[in-house]
Amino acid sequence: MAYEILYEILLVVAGYLFGSIPFAYIVGKVGRGIDIRDYGSGNMGATNVMRALGKKAGFLTMGLDMIKGTIPVLLARLYIWLGNYSGFGTKSGGTDFPKFLDEGFLLTLVALMAVVGHALPVWVKFKGGKSAAVGSGAILGINPIAFVIIILAWIPLLKFTKIMSLSNLIMALVAPVIYWIFAGTDWFFNGSLWALIVACIMIVFVFWRHKANIKRLLTGTERKMGEKVELEPESE
Length: 236
Hints:
With 236 residues, this protein is mainly alpha-helical. The chain has one domain (4-219). The chain contains ten helices and no strands. It has helices spanning 4-20, 23-32, 46-53, 55-82, 103-119, 132-142, 144-161, 164-181, 193-209, 211-219. Helix 4 (55-82) runs parallel beside helix 6 (132-142). The relative contact order is 0.15.
């Protein structure tokens, strides 16, 4: 297919646009008529929504954020299955550039763009969230078995630490290892070294987005789960 690279670029752009959907903002506006960016930490993520609007709104936001990470990855997977994918940027029967960028690379690149889109959403002036939920949703699209294992480990970890950011950062570190070890079949593209490299870039990005949380963790001032904020504008 002569224009294979165009389809792949569209998938990458779709990853960013899906990730940019500001569900925290939408839940705040629809549920309480507020701009969540003006409350609590100002973060456009599920944790801030939970503190400002309650658990139901927070978990709804988390679920929606996970879905927007899953959908673009599944679209990329369908393209790989139904199309004539021969390596990112290649043309079937044409140029050899660069055939080593395999299926796993495309899936994780789309996932990375969803994570970036959540953190820097074009719809709301590039002020987004920390991207942990979106990243976990992307893992669901790449490797469902690894996703289940990560969630099963994350839930007791969160109950033990009672700190969302700490639990998310710990799981972000171990997620690539779980991705690589479990469900090691060609169907999940676990053998893709390029996928692992892009996943590590994603982790660095997520840690960078959590830099304020890391500072508070080091000083012992990070809020725990269940601590609500007053529904009044507050600077981070």
